[in-house]
Amino acid sequence: MKNINVGLIGGGFMGKAHSLAYSAVPMFFWPTEIMPVKKVIAEATDELAQDAAARFGFERFTSDWRSIVNDPEIDVIDIATPNHLHAEIAIAALEAGKHVICEKPLARTVEESAAMYAAARLSTQVHMVAFNYRRTPAVALAKKYIDEGSIGEILNFRATYLQDWSADPSSPLSWRFQKKIAGSGAVGDIATHIVDLARYLAGDITSVSALTSTFIKERPVQSAGSDSLGNSRVDSGPMAAVDVDDEVMTLVRFASGAVGSLEATRNAWGRNNFITFEIHGTEGSIYFNYENRDELQVCFKSDGGDRRGFRTVYTGPNHPNGANLWPIPALGIGYGETKIIEAHDFFTAIAGGEPVRPDFGDGYQVALVDHAILDSAETGLWTQVPILDRETGTLSVSQ
Fold it and tell me: The domain 134-352 is classified under which CATH number: 3.40.50.300, 1.10.3720.10, 3.30.360.10, 2.70.70.10?
């Protein structure tokens, strides 16, 4: 067993999720080749860093992320910061010979994503972007059915990511509503997840026709230092502009010839974390709703006319990663389990000297789709998405 020393940069919500995963990996995936060691955590101030270290179980703390990158004792740099810091930290970490896991989206812009991918190609280290929803066992089961040919050739893919955590105009101006920090709004923050799921399940997206909206144009200035994710109200005080989108809808075409649609919004009262996809193929259909994440709805053409309809498969020990989680189907998994699986796959790749997906190339390709969506929304035209050749690192456009 080998110890892998982790330096985590960012002690907010995502820092908590990653820290939990590092503690739980050996509990769920035993015996393990590696043992994550929570060595040092960085935050904006020494006080915040000290608090985060105590809460999340790190040995040391600092307010200088560069000291972690330059620390020869650290093997892994985990980037759980707001988006504007991703590129600088990741590039420095890769150049310092560290393995890197970075929260999504990979960066604010396609240019920053390209620079991160270029640095990754020059490195021999493992790099990963944290699109953890594809680690949900039911999603991995959908991928298994597709790869086996159980639903035949995919004809149509549609997905949603609907939330209401910031539907209240009185929720404060998080960094997620500021272009200089976030890069974009619903497009980069939540639509990226369903773009990743679309690519994972149905293949590359080659063109989009999109519209975006900003319905809540200003919000109260946030007084607290941490991101509240909309779980609070500010009923008085100064206001500031929201300069990113909070709604996106797009039609998509896939390289395979399939068609589909993606929708993401922050304004859907009653929807909490409503990630769904429905896939129709020549031999059957699949439906998934993350709010019922132990379930996969399937219908196969071979079922016969007298029993055709969606059936529910409850994921458990017989399904992807199920044997490492809980012993009974439908016992219930949560967000944390997807992060545990993600961390296990990342560390397994490090131990074996192998790449892991999704990597920075996948994050860059998602950024290319996001960029095309924003461009299409501005021009009102169908916009082509350049496709990354992972062998050469070059881009091409489908004709």
Answer: 3.30.360.10
